[in-house]
Amino acid sequence: MSAEQHVADFFRANDWAVEMLPRGPNGADLILQRGTRRFIVEIKALSESRADRVIPLLSMAILQARAAAEQFGDALPLAIVCVPDVSPSLARHVNAFAQRFAKDVSVGLIARRGGQYFCGAAFQELSRLPEEPRRTAATHPPQRINLFSDLNQWMLKLLLARELPEGLLNAPRKKFRNGSELAEAARVSAMSASRFLQQLRSEGYLSDSSPYLKLVRREALFRRWSAATMRSCPEMPCRFLLRMPVLPQIQGLLGGHTEDACLGLFAAADELDIGHVSGVPPYVYVHKLPRPGSPDWPELIAHPTEQPDLILRQAAFPQSTFRGAIDRNGVMVSDVIQVWLDVMHHPARGAEQAALIYKKFLLPIVGG
After folding, report:
1. Domains present along the chain, CATH in parentheses
2. Given 2, 188, 189, 263, which residue has the most CB atoms within 10 angstroms?
């Protein structure tokens, strides 16, 4: 993507009207407008983020932006240099140069890998700089986080939610521009979201060019995701005390535990209208298995000697499992991604069920 297109996409994502101009004698690349504010923009690009390379190119952009603004009359000049990264140190050099030589021109740095810095009141709210590393006596390699921890899986689902058909995942269907918006939607700390996105980016799963948080290399990401969740979970086979149809009793059971239980695996696939395997007792996810005879589940007999009516399973990733669960006619059901992850390694034809889910719902968003 060209520097001009990258800058144009950035401003559109931040609610500016953008007009791309053909290259001509005025030297301008874009016109930006929001309300009565109008700017003529000159853009330069560099493959390095060194101040001794940026400042000379910025000075040229300032001169050309001034000249273009004089021709357009009602537009103010804005000079931008597109660089790989924007550091606090580089921002200080640019600010010092702009304050000394170009107080009449707004200037900015926009990084292809995220982050930006602006001098000028109209754009200061868009400045986003990484924190400078603290100096310590000894340097340590950055700590890697578990990309597929419980809350990180939930944030992955949020980044994918808008691309799934409605009714398959309980999550806001929106684009996120930054970690703060993701943290708010996920109900996690800003630091947790920032570390998660940093890990995604460092492993090559987050787009460097999109104005929104966009996952890339998804096929590899989904393979790793499925491998990371392959673990045994504590289970408890159960039968109902009353000998009557099982399905209405399960619906009543889940209706009384809407916050801490949901239908999972093959029974959840049935509720999502993509069931493929029959004859397996329904699985119900819980935060923690009850003790036999627990008053929390008086309807059930634990560990029956005969065929169980259902199997209680302790969720290995409760935040991701229960936050993404969907209400289907008063019954909480695991979301489609969770079902795919959970059935994949089940011995009762789980691979077939997972393949069907992947082909119908996940392949269109992975990109095959």
Report:
1. 3-126 (3.40.1350.10), 150-228 (1.10.10.10), 235-366 (no CATH)
2. 263
